[in-house]
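hi! just following up on the protien thing from before. the input was this:
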Amino acid sequence: MKHLETLYSYFISFPQFALTWGMFFGAGLLTFAFQLYRNRRQFSIKEMFVHCVPFSPWTSKSFHMDVLIYVYRKFTDFVFAAPGVALMAFAAAFTDLALRRLFGDMSPYHVGYVATVICTIGIFLAAELADYVVHYLEHKVPVLWELHKVHHSADFLNPLTSKRGHSLPLLYGGAMAGMITGPTAGVFMYVFGISLVEAVLLKAVASKIFTVWTLDPLKHSHIPVSLGWFDSFLISPHMHQIHHSKLQPHWDRNFGTNLSIFDWLFRTGYRPAKGEQAVFGISGYSDNSLQKFNTIKGAFITPMVRSGRVLLKLVRPVPNGSVDVSSEPTESSNVGRSAPPL
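and the predicted 3d structure came back as:
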């Protein structure tokens, strides 16, 4: 399957760092130039910098935590992701073997470009569904929400915020991906005779394509870009920024990673109006309260403790008249809000 190797080489080998930051600063410069032209203002280097980076990289604790978590996860993600990868490989191999036992070996269809596209779309849809389900549950299940809060605690968004999150979600996220994506890959392995490695490469190529198509580096930014008609099936930067908003109309919306089709299907989609503002943070948390997440303890230890307390409450309910010390004195949380059940 030389064409798969060509696709992989072309898309995957392109430096992600250059793509991410090139798109982030390129969009900032373009929108700044447009504002200069529209408002007939004089050029100012200071204004240009503030427009591209509307927070202080030197003093913002939120940005410093983004950097710290990004570096930490660069060296540790593989440990937490490994069980999910193993589960996906097992599920794919088991599905392939089960189909062979049930229907016997079949002569695989010729794996040309049409078959490659079919496999890519199928595996990518399965991966997107797994991401959607996990993200939905992270907002609806209190045990998971305590861990996911770390991601939503950023008071400014930048490309590093995409990695801002606890490591434990990689375990249950990988498990969900293994249970949904694995069997899907197994079906294509049986029908088309592709290997597990080729199935993974196809998913990686699709992810790279949609990273560019959906302007993914801008999803964690302050630049509200819409994709126009493509918002009907893609998550635009503006749609994901709305997901990070703590304003009530924006609660529990746009859970998709790249595709919005599952949000529209399960009635969690929200297409913001042109110029609609998002206020980043967590509902019920003041700016000072959000700073608690910008420490090692607040980002890694406290979420596990609070998640454990919530789990303990489910196993051992608090007696009547007792004080529940596990909850923070906040006005509201993202759990049990406006989105309908699946």
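The chain has one domain: 2-315.
Confidence is low (pLDDT under 50) at residues 329-333, 336-342.
cheers
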